[in-house]
Structure formats: C-alpha cells, structure tokens
C-alpha cells in the first residue's frame, strides 16, 4: 500500500490506475528516493505531504501529530452523538455544540464539521505548528465551519461552560517510559507524552475541563457526552477519574482492532456542578 501511494504521489495522480505504464527517469529517481526514505521509517504522510482521516484528505507536515485510523472510531462516537442531537432538534434550533480539545491538524473537528453540517464546532490547539496546520486544513476543507482557538485544552473556552453537547479529544497520553513505534517518534513529543510516569496528567485535565464544559445531566436531560482516546492500559484508571469527577454512564469503548482505547462518559448532574454565570441559554 505504501509503495502504491508513493507511486501515485510521484506521478501526481489520484489513482494507481492513472499511473502510466512507463515513467520517466526523473519520476523513477523520485520514487527510489521516496522508497529509501520510507525504508528508514520516515512516515508516509511526511513524504507525500498528506494524510487521510475518514473521508478527508488533510495536509500533513513534520512537527504535527499524524492522524491515525485508530482515532476514526473516537470521531465516530462524537459524530453519532451530534447526529442524534441534530435530528432531535427543530430546524429553528441551534445545531449541536461540539468542542475538539487538542485538535492537532484539525482532523476530528473537520470530520464533525463535514459529516454533521448543522454542528457548531470549536477546536482548541496550543502548539504553534499544529495550530497553523489546523488553520490551513480548516480553510481548505470546511471554510467558516470550525472556530479554531489557540490555547490550553485544560483551561480553554470557559465562556462555553455548561453549554456544550459533545467534548471529544485525542490528547497526549503516552506514558513517559513507553517505547513507541518508529513512525510515532517522528511526531512531536508534546503531542505524544501525557505527563507524569503514567501519561495521564493531560487526560485527567481534559476530564475535569469537560465536566465544566458539558451540558449537565438533569432529570429530563441525559447531558453532554465526553469521548476521549487513551492508551489501552489506562482504561480503568481513567474511568475512576471520570467517576470521581461526577460523570455518569462511564464506560470504555474499543477501536477498530478491538482494543480498549476510549473513554465514553455522560456529564455530571447539575446539582454536583458549581454555579457559574456562563450556564445560560444558547443564543
């Protein structure tokens, strides 16, 4: 598959069936060079300058986390929730409000914006390189559909506290001592390691931020939904963190390979949340 993708890139075509039966010397040399780079574990996405996420083709750059197929199920749970809310609301109501924390290249936010057109999507990113790439991808794939915010995902968007329908995140979560696959070492450390020996400093911060951002649960409203990717061995600990933060219906969901890779949880009850001036009706 890598060899095929590299040949398409060298020839400037979208399908292998468009590759000519004979290629020129310059293209042949580019192809040999690309194969050599891939042999040394340079990510395919960095060589061709693009990456794929669900139905999207995004620009890829060194210094920014590469979107991976494992995260597509994280996006799916968020999309399913947003679609359900969109269908249940009248056409005159505001669409579901969704926040993608630690957006990186903007992949999850753009999947939501393009697959649930009525959704109002915010995306938060701290790193300069990732923020710039997210801007480029959003302007190219969904102009005007994603509100991009530069800031810390564990403290951002306090003005939306208590109003958000879905918080979705693929935060840094790799434990410091874990050895990752060679391709992952091309990602910036800030996008990989979650802080502390267990890698859960940032994921814990995301859970507590989501507890305030999400629409609270009530007797008549099941509340907003948190969907967060994590390492397989972190599932039990993060469920405990979510329960301690007041979340309800806390569970672990699996990725495409069947591994425990994401936390799914409903917002805490309104009675357990401190009052705040931002808990107002949406405009």
Automatic annotation (TrEMBL):
Key words of the record: Methyltransferase, S-adenosyl-L-methionine, Transferase
Enzyme class: transferase
Protein name, per record: peptide chain release factor N(5)-glutamine methyltransferase
GO MF terms, alphabetically ordered: nucleic acid binding; peptide chain release factor N(5)-glutamine methyltransferase activity
Top-level taxonomy: Bacteria, Bacillati, Actinomycetota, Actinomycetes, Actinomycetales
Domain of life: Bacteria
Gene3D superfamilies: DNA helicase RuvA subunit, C-terminal domain, Vaccinia Virus protein VP39
A family per Pfam: MTS
Segments forming domain Release factor glutamine methyltransferase N-terminal: 2-49
Residues annotated as domain Methyltransferase small: 78-202
Known EC number: 2.1.1.297
Gene Ontology BP terms: methylation
Catalytic activity from the UniProt record: L-glutaminyl-[peptide chain release factor] + S-adenosyl-L-methionine = N(5)-methyl-L-glutaminyl-[peptide chain release factor] + S-adenosyl-L-homocysteine + H(+)
PROSITE patterns (UniProt xref): N6_MTASE
Coiled-coil residue windows: none
